[in-house]
Specification:
Blueprint (H helix, E strand, L loop, with lengths): L10 E5 L4 H12 L3 E6 L2 H14 L3 E5 L5 H15 L4 E4 L15 H28 L3 E6 L2 H4 L6 H21 L4 E8 L5 H9 L3 H7 L13 H8 L10 E4 L6
Helix pairs in contact: 1-2, 1-9, 3-4, 4-6
């Protein structure tokens, strides 16, 4: 059974790997044996993650990348491929959240920013990574969205809709790249105790308590609780799973 989840010899790119879910994912995949390219906007922060990975044994590389900048994305993939020699797994985790904001006050600049980072960037990263995966027999793309993409709420329109667009693109990726041996799936987290959630609590007091109360388990998840689902999607344990979305939300939605 353990072999199904073994990632030894695999190379994974994890974006947003300096903190929160991304850091937990990067460390978790490394513990499963994968070599990791850890990326975030700030090199010093993703280098800390890379150093922790190296201490576990796998190879690691830190690359600064603004996921909203396609040139930076191209550079990330070029460096990852040149340094590691292959790419087998992509976890599109980087994104930006939204403070509660009415749809009627949404500017064109705000709209473009959320879609640039949460939709267009991950799409481009996946599109240039999939052909590289195909060179070594295929791979797995895991797009981290949000339960708000499945059940959008008021006052978070740009966050929910941009992540819903990435969910739709996940299905497109799965259909287009199945012949390459590349699988694509999405994971929709519910409330996790991350900096993003803490920021929302600071602007909207009671947000954390309210988020816990909408789950069946009546609690906020720890970042490490995302590792199992991502490892499943990244590994051969999910070899017949593609084009799907897995909710990891404590039963908040079904």
């Amino acid at each position: 059974m353990g072999q199904l989840f073994d990632l030894s010899g695999k190379v994974a790119i994890v974006t947003g790997a300096s903190r929160g879910l991304g850091k937990a994912i990067a460390l978790g995949l490394a513990e499963a044996g994968a070599d990791i390219v850890a990326s975030s906007r700030t090199l010093s922060e993703c280098q800390q993650t890379a150093d922790q990975i190296a201490a576990l044994g796998p190879r690691s590389l830190a690359v600064a990348c603004d996921i909203g900048n396609w040139q930076a994305i191209d550079n990330l993939v070029e460096k990852a491929h040149a340094h590691m020699g292959r790419i087998d797994i992509l976890v599109n985790n980087a994104g930006i959240a939204q403070d509660p904001h009415p749809l009627t006050d949404t500017s064109e600049e705000m709209f473009n920013r959320y879609y640039q980072v949460n939709t267009k960037g991950p799409m481009h990263l996946a599109a240039i990574t999939a052909p590289i995966m195909a060179q070594t027999g295929g791979g797995s793309i895991v797009n981290i969205i949000t339960m708000g993409a499945l059940k959008p709420g008021g006052y978070l329109p740009m966050y929910c809709s941009s992540k819903a667009a990435l969910k739709a693109l996940t299905r497109c990726m799965a259909e287009e790249w199945a012949s390459l041996g590349v699988r694509a799936n999405a994971i929709a987290p519910g409330p996790f105790l991350t900096d993003m959630l803490q920021d929302l609590e600071s602007t909207t007091p009671g947000f954390i308590e309210g988020s816990a109360n909408i789950t069946l388990l009546k609690r906020i998840a720890q970042p490490e609780e995302i590792v199992g689902p991502v490892t499943f999607m990244a590994s051969d344990a999910s070899s017949y799973v593609t084009g799907q979305c897995l909710s990891v939300c404590g039963g908040a939605i079904c």
